[in-house]
Amino acid sequence: MKAIVIGGGIGGICAAIALKRFGIETAVYEAVKQIKPVGAAISIWPNGVKCLNWLGMKAPLRALGGPMHYMAYHDYLHGQIMTRFSISPLVESVGERPYPVARAELQAMLLDTYGRDAVQFGKRVTHIEESDSGVTAWFDDGTEARGDLLIAADGTHSVIRQHVLGYQTERRYAGYVNWNGLVEIDPSIAPADQWTTFVGEGKRVSLMPVSGNRFYFFFDVPLPKGLPEDRTTLRADLQRYFAGWAAPVQKLIASINPETTNRIEIHDIEPFMQLVKGRVALLGDAGHSTTPDIGQGGCAAMEDAIVLATALQTNSLGIEDALLRYQEKRAWRVKDLVLKARKRCDVTHGKEMAITEQWYQELKQETGERILSGMCETILGGPLE
């Protein structure tokens, strides 16, 4: 059996590693000539960590992950602590801890595990065709590839999604812009072992520790789509949007490097239940593009990879049947994650400001149990629980 994997990002490489583990031949094709991960870092929650453990990356992941032991929310105006609590109860409940990691380092770890030389770069798929015996993919350089099945891990702008669904999907603007990057840890901004978030006015500023004495930071601001902002105005934009916010926020804005800070308009796609057609399967953002508000986009792709490979390995009624079993196990799970993230997005970013203000008040009474319980529920829905 040979699987063509379209996309060399997190989901595609995890799928290739999982298939390889089961002795299934793989060929990975990536559109760009050099992968430049979107976003500076990613929070890998315990369900994703367990997937990477299963794929053989337990030790290298720990070397990349930051020491995140606490969570805290601060008032935007004066920086006062609204709530602070240990995440140890979460770790004890689910049997693993979260690891925030730099995206470029995660991508490098995945490529090194699979075999960097085995990925064919500069291969942008134009269309695919299925037959009773396999799938053929054509690329814009005039070449083609054939396999017994095809895994479409070609991201939120997937070319192959329409082949599976039979219609064109539209990306939905979530209503806010996210700036993110990496900066050296400064204890006067936030503790080095804590996920720290400042909230107010429907905006947020967040910091997570990653390896190398660095914070992963991000700023969220509800804004109209398509504003003419870029790196040349980035610091001034943030200073304007966060004018009057607490001193640590001002210090963070002053310390960032605009040349390495990303500005992203956040989108998702209305969830759908069809993830496969014949011998073609959607995986990762191609199958469930979500906002980052519950930190499950990358983790969900890792889950997909393991469920898909296991279905192909453990079911013997043919490829089409195995892919349908993958769809059965994943469709409701990923739909739930997309909708949970959308709900969290709307509360966090002031879609209805009265609800957001109520959340701010609830944070002042929060002991950690309610927040960690919600996280636990999401994590325990993964395939390795």
TrEMBL record:
It catalyses: urate + NADH + O2 + H(+) = 5-hydroxyisourate + NAD(+) + H2O. Keywords: FAD, Flavoprotein, Monooxygenase, NAD, Oxidoreductase, Purine metabolism. One of its GO terms (molecular function) is FAD binding. Its EC number is 1.14.13.113. Pfam families: FAD_binding_3. Residues 2-338 form the FAD-binding domain. One of its GO terms (biological process) is purine nucleobase metabolic process. It comes from the Bacteria. Its cofactor is FAD. Pathway: Purine metabolism; urate degradation. InterPro entries: FAD-bd, FAD-dep_Monooxygenase_BioMet, FAD/NAD-bd_sf, HpxO. PANTHER family: MONOOXYGENASE, PUTATIVE (AFU_ORTHOLOGUE AFUA_6G14510)-RELATED. Belongs to the FAD-dependent urate hydroxylase family. This is FAD-dependent urate hydroxylase.
